[in-house]
Design goal:
The chain has 2 domains: 1-136, no CATH class; 140-314, no CATH class. The chain contains 15 helices and no strands. It is an all-alpha fold and 314 residues long. It has helices at residues 2-17, 19-26, 33-43, 46-62, 67-70, 72-91, 93-121, 126-135, 140-164, 171-182, 184-205, 209-246, 253-267, 270-284, 292-312.
Length: 314
């Protein structure tokens, strides 16, 4: 954990320093470059807090503790809303970025008590665990496959935002709102896989591939049913959902129509994204490097870039 925290801190500092270059490279068409740089620097702390929050969540879930990891997004959104309520009038959009930074801190704080209690309970076993870890070399290849897979998956969003930065004002906001809402069915369906992931990992560690495969097959089938139901709801009710959630103030009926259209497009890919999320965990929990998920995700990134560029046009 100390080494990870140091790496996260270095990466966050690099993002803050290189913010002007990153904004220019990732969103060259933005009209207010300085505002985007300020927001990027404010949210650079999330490299540290999100990384630590993910580590805490993984550790707690491995010990079958799901309440604290499930509460992190409540804490995250509470931080955003609170900061925007206090600073919104003076800071404008920057208050949202500051809220994201505060929310990231709250994500870590929400899990620390539970994690510390678990560590205290296992303090007597720590010496043997440390000895085992010292004797076990770091699986660099496995770590690399997981890291590159995650980067490829997140780069799809960056490609979309890059292409949308040259479109009329509001396009990036439409994409962001549509993605957040359309992904709710996928998030709900993958909760099942999150709960059963320790079962799959334990079965694979014990060499019981039949039990692991049976669990994964049932998870994928149930998650697919849930996400298809959610996708159908999004396609059928997209305008009504967007109108209920967002249409007020500066968010007009035209914004509702544009966001609803994007939501319906996103809904077409929900099944594929859900299956990827469910199956990737079984590959990586086997304890050995597997480049197949990375290759599949890289192909998806290329398809996103080509299709997006063709749709946006010159």
């Amino acid at each position: 954990l100390p080494r990870l925290a140091l790496a996260f801190t270095a990466a966050g500092a690099l993002v803050a320093v290189a913010a002007p270059v990153l904004v220019r490279a990732l969103a060259p068409g933005l009209p207010d470059h300085a505002l985007a740089v300020d927001c990027t620097r404010l949210t650079a702390t999330c490299v540290v807090t999100f990384g630590l929050a993910g580590y805490c969540s993984a550790a707690l879930r491995a010990h079958r503790r799901f309440l604290a990891p499930a509460a992190i997004y409540v804490a995250y959104n509470t931080g955003i809303i609170a900061v925007m309520s206090v600073l919104g009038g003076r800071w404008g959009v920057r208050s949202a970025a500051a809220g994201v930074a505060v929310g990231g801190v709250l994500m870590v704080a929400a899990q620390l008590p539970s994690l510390l209690r678990r560590l205290k309970r296992h303090e007597g076993e720590r010496s043997s665990v440390v000895a085992d870890e010292a004797a076990r070399p770091l699986a660099v290849a496995l770590f690399a496959t997981v890291l590159l897979f995650a980067l490829c998956r997140q780069s799809q969003v960056l490609i979309e935002r890059f292409l949308a930065s040259g479109l009329p004002s509001g396009a990036i906001s439409h994409l962001n709102y549509a993605q957040k809402v359309a992904q709710i069915p996928m998030t709900l369906s993958l909760m099942l896989c999150t709960v059963t992931f320790p079962v799959v990992a334990r079965a694979l560690a014990d060499g019981d591939t039949e039990r692991a495969r049976d669990r994964v097959e049932r998870d994928v089938a149930l998650a697919a049913c849930l996400v298809l139901l959610g996708a159908a709801t999004v396609v059928a009710c997209a305008p009504q959902i967007v109108q209920l959630l967002f249409q007020r103030g500066a968010f007009t009926a035209a914004d509702t129509a544009a966001t609803a259209g994007v939501m319906r497009v996103y809904a077409l890919g929900l099944l594929g994204q859900t299956v990827v999320g469910a199956l990737a965990r079984s590959y990586f929990s086997a304890g050995r490097a597997s480049w197949y998920p990375l290759g599949a995700m890289a192909a998806g990134v290329v398809a996103t870039a080509v299709a997006g560029a063709a749709a946006v046009g010159p």
